[in-house]
């Protein structure tokens, strides 16, 4: 599998970062986030997941035996995670927000439907964790959106994290395969052994930003421990958002903000700017732009 290109040396050059994003469809930025802040969020996640019966010990990551994330998890374990204000506040940390604004070169907003990925150890060694897909398929009305992938736990060959196919965003919206499952037709017929895949060993504080048409997925988790990460999505303020993603991820199976955020210090983490237009998903034939900015 190919290594991701490290773009941390180009952080001071927004033009170079935009060029790399346009060429590769992603930016890999090791250590750009505050590892201590990530660690504090992880500590809260461990406590919540232990309380929900997913971890044997709130100080560790050893997973209780059981199935992986299922549809019913949206109404059981997942609310305990989405109630954590720190998870949502992380999307607005100044380093991340400033980086996204520089890349787009205009006003942006963050999708309220932030995702926390809970990857149990594989039932069988080498089992494909998250199949290949493009975020645009279900997440966006506009393709001019970036996903920030944030690992809370370290990732290595035994506990693999995000993998993606460099340059795949330039192929546009690809046909999905309904036979591969999922609540909606989402997944692409790309094999886990496809030689185009690229990945890295990740540590807390690392960041990967990728375009909504970049093909990506998650490698197998053979570590015996839970793998935790977040997906946070941003797009220009003048581009519309699919209306359901103004609600929490998994809604209506997960509770809405009035319940999840009842004890938060502010509603700023999920309240959208009044200028954001909420629209239904456009027809599949809608032409998509393929680079942000």
Commentary on this structure:
It is built from seven helices and 13 strands. With 293 residues, it is α+β, with helices and mostly antiparallel strands. The chain has a single domain, classed as Sandwich (Jelly Rolls), CATH 2.60.120.620. Strands 2, 3, 4, 6, 9 and 11 form a six-stranded antiparallel beta sheet that branches. It has a three-stranded antiparallel beta sheet with strand order 5-10-7, with no helix packed on it. A two-stranded parallel sheet has the order 1-8. It is globular and about 45 Å long. It starts with a strand and ends in a 14-residue tail after the last strand. Mean pLDDT is 91; it is low at 284-293.
List the topology elements:
Layout: E1 2-3, H1 14-24, E2 26-29, H2 35-51, H3 77-82, H4 85-89, H5 94-104, E3 108-110, E4 115-119, E5 130-133, H6 136-139, E6 146-151, E7 162-164, E8 198-199, E9 207-211, E10 216-218, E11 227-236, E12 241-242, H7 257-260, E13 278-279
Parallel strand pairs: 1-8, 12-13
Antiparallel strand pairs: 2-9, 3-11, 4-11, 5-10, 6-9, 6-11, 7-10
Helix pairs in contact: 1-5
């Amino acid at each position: 599998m190919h290594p991701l290109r490290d773009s941390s040396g180009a952080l001071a050059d927004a033009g170079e970062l935009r060029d790399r994003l346009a060429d590769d469809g992603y930016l890999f930025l090791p250590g750009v986030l505050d590892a201590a802040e990530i660690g504090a969020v992880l500590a809260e996640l461990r406590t919540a997941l232990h309380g929900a019966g997913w971890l044997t010990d709130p100080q560790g990551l050893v997973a209780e035996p059981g199935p992986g994330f299922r549809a019913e998890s949206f109404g059981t374990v997942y609310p305990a995670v989405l109630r954590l204000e720190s998870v949502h506040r992380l999307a607005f940390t100044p380093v991340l927000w400033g980086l996204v604004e520089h890349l787009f070169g205009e006003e942006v907003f963050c999708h309220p439907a932030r995702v926390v990925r809970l990857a149990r150890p594989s039932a069988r060694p080498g089992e494909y964790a998250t199949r290949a897909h493009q975020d645009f398929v279900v997440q966006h009305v506009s393709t001019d959106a970036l996903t920030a992938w944030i690992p809370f736990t370290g990732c290595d060959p035994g506990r693999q994290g995000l993998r993606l196919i460099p340059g795949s965003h330039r192929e546009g919206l690809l046909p999905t395969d309904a036979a591969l499952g999922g609540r909606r037709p989402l997944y692409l017929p790309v094999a886990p052994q496809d030689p185009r895949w690229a990945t890295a060993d990740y540590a807390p504080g690392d960041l990967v930003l990728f375009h909504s048409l970049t093909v990506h997925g998650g490698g197998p988790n053979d570590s015996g421990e839970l793998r935790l990460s977040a997906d946070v999505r941003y797009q220009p303020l003048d581009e519309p958002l699919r209306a359901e993603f103004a609600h929490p991820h998994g809604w209506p199976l997960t509770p809405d903000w009035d319940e999840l955020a009842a004890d938060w210090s502010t509603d700023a983490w999920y309240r959208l700017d009044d200028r954001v237009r909420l629209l239904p998903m456009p027809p599949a034939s809608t032409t998509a732009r393929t680079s942000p900015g």
